Amino acid sequence: MELRLLGYAVAIAEEGSISGAARRLHLTQPTLSRQLREMERQLGAKLFVREGRGLAPTAAGRVLVRRAVGVLAEAEAALKDVRLAAQGMTGRLTVTFAGSGINGPLGAALSRVRRELPRVDLQLVESFNDAEMSSGVLEGRFDLAVQRLPMRDARLATRVWWQEPLTLFLPAGHPLAHSPEPAPLTALGQIPLVIWPREVSPRSYDEIIALCHRAGVVPKVSAEGRSVQTLLALVAAKFGAAVLADSHRALRRVGVTPRPLADTSTTLHLVWRAEETDPLVERMRAVLTEVVGNG
Question: Does CATH place domain 91-163+267-294 in 2.40.50.140?
Answer without folding.
Answer: no
